[in-house]
């Protein structure tokens, strides 16, 4: 977003940068692409800030409308996020199997392209609606509230207890956009490294629960689980944590209990 920054409380500001520093520039500016990268595609200043503020404001209005619809239908919505390859869809598939007969569940599946993940979730007792962000949404790397709203006519809200919004795999943008959910969770794989909470604090700070996945691989990795927990505590000290393995099913019942506890 260039010099525009949105805080976690929803406030935004523009980072104005005065280039009249009190030091001499003795380096050559003749090759700006080589020295500083090609910034020709970026526009900074008040106009850009106004546009971004408008985007967020419209998104937040639609998110509120989504939440009202969920509340009127007595549906609890959860925004489920992760990086690509963290095991989110595999874990969700096992979750749907275990929730059958316990919670009436629907899924909004977000992907840039293909129906691969949506197909994996079909036949598991949940209503599934696919959003491909490449189809009319500019190939966005996240779901936003208007995208989620576009999928609601394909979800039987009145017949559901729980709606899981499986966001596009990305540790950055999904954390910035309210989609109208009541709670947020993320799947983090131990194969990603202990430092991820420090490198992507907005994501780890924005969620109510972190599912530490692929725990079955721990004996085979040079991974410091204690260091990860310390890093997570540094950015989000109050977050709930469940250690899981989508492959073995470890921790999935605790995750299902967490989802059930969200219900009134």
From TrEMBL:
Keywords per UniProt: GTP-binding, Hydrolase, Metal-binding, Nickel, Nucleotide-binding, Zinc
GO annotation terms (biological process): protein maturation
Keyword Hydrolase: yes
Domain (CobW/HypB/UreG nucleotide-binding): residue spans on this chain: 78-242
Coiled-coil portions: none
Any one GO MF annotation of this record: zinc ion binding
Tagged with keyword GTP-binding: yes
Compositionally biased region (Basic and acidic residues): 1-39
Region of interest (Disordered), residue spans: 1-41
Family: Belongs to the SIMIBI class G3E GTPase family. HypB/HupM subfamily.
Name of the protein this chain belongs to: Hydrogenase nickel incorporation protein HypB
Organism field: Mycolicibacterium frederiksbergense
Recorded name of the encoding gene: hypB
């Amino acid at each position: 977003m260039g010099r525009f920054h949105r805080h976690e409380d929803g406030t935004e500001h523009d980072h104005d940068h005065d280039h009249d520093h009190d030091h001499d520039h003795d380096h050559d500016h003749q090759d700006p692409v080589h020295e500083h990268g090609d910034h020709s595609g970026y526009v900074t200043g008040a106009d850009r800030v106004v546009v971004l503020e408008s985007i967020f404001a419209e998104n937040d209005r639609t998110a509120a409308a989504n939440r009202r619809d969920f509340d009127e239908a007595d549906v609890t919505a959860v925004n489920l996020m992760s990086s690509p390859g963290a095991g989110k869809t595999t874990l969700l598939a096992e979750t749907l199997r275990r929730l059958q007969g316990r919670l009436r569940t629907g899924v909004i599946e977000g992907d840039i392209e293909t129906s691969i993940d949506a197909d994996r979730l079909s036949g598991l007792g949940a209503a599934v609606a696919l959003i491909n962000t490449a189809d009319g949404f500019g190939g966005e790397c996240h779901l936003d509230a208007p995208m989620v709203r576009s999928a609601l006519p394909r979800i039987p809200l009145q017949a559901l207890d729980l709606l899981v919004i499986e966001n596009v795999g990305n540790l950055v943008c999904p954390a910035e956009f309210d989609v109208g959910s009541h709670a947020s969770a993320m799947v983090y794989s131990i194969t990603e490294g202990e430092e991820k909470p420090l490198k992507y604090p907005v994501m780890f700070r924005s969620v109510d629960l972190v599912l530490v996945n692929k725990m079955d691989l721990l004996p085979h990795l040079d991974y410091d689980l204690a260091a990860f927990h310390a890093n997570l505590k540094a950015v989000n000290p109050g977050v709930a944590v469940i250690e899981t393995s989508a492959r073995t099913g470890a921790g999935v019942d605790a995750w299902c209990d967490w989802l059930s506890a969200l219900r009134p």
